[in-house]
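Inputs:
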Amino acid sequence: QKEVEQNSGPLSVPEGAIASLNCTYSDRVSQSFFWYRQYSGKSPELIMSIYSNGDKEDGRFTAQLNKASQYVSLLIRDSQPSDSATYLCAAEGSNSGYALNFGKGTSLLVTP
Amino acid sequence: DTEVTQTPKHLVMGMTNKKSLKCEQHMGHRAMYWYKQKAKKPPELMFVYSYEKLSINESVPSRFSPECPNSSLLNLHLHALQPEDSALYLCASSPTGGPTDTQYFGPGTRLTVL
């Protein structure tokens, strides 16, 4: 079973701080990794995708990938209360038509 | 435009009913997916269609029947469901279904089975 592991949290950070979300994956064949944000009762919304080792920045978000360690992370700078949501880490599944294997999600709470 | 639409938004059905969920995208994507999400759980893959052909069925019970009439449309036919099938049903699409594709999700259909 190919797995994606996340700390379920909740992770609580004050407004303006950096939130750090982490994820590990077991399938060494996976090439693509994604972070989705999901508000309660809503569908997942793509935040970042990353395919190569290193960092990828988009506005306040930075994704980091280390394939040797099978580790993916998401940093959110200047966290806002509106960032409070569940963050889902996903890896493309090589044995499921490249559909996504999701971690259980990390609940983030940004306090004013 | 990265929009995937799903109808209905909410559905309540009895265990003897037959109903269908509909998903549509006009991005020219050739891969479409059905996921099921229970409360406080991650989405779980049900089916994958690639170029209008069913490529993956994750051992889903036969009371769920997918259909892909054309490259823009994906249906999920429901029959004789159980209360434990109550969940958020998510449709997604991606350009080709390849290993570096990004999947875009629709808003989901909240299904309640009585």
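Chain A touches chain B at residues 31-32, 34, 36, 41-46, 49, 51, 88, 92-94, 96-100, 102-105 (CB under 8 Å). Flag for discussion at group meeting.
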